[in-house]
From TrEMBL:
Domain of life per record: Bacteria
Name under which the protein is recorded: IrrE N-terminal-like domain-containing protein
Amino acid sequence: MDYAPGLTAVRFSDAPHLEAQTDPATGVCTVGMALWLATSDKERYFMLLHEAAHLELKTRDELICDSHALSVYRRRFPRDLMPTYTLLLKVLDPADPVHAARLQRFRNQF
Ligand SMILES: [Zn+2]
């Protein structure tokens, strides 16, 4: 699969249940308007770092992209990591075992 070198555009959608997804070929990130409106600037920054990580690292692996996005975010806001976690809480369901494991692994990096 060919990957765009990074995010090329951010678009918004009213599609139900859409959180954020990026077309790897074009680099266009589509964000659900409801999520965008429910997030802070730092949560949005972390979200876009995560989406960009999919392109930069050429992977669909969510855990790898969470870790990469956190490392970039941490360099800019080392004393304010909580928005990274609150963003994940807004898009993941702790009752889902896969999501719960992702949240646990993320917390362990704090
Ligand atoms: Zn992802």
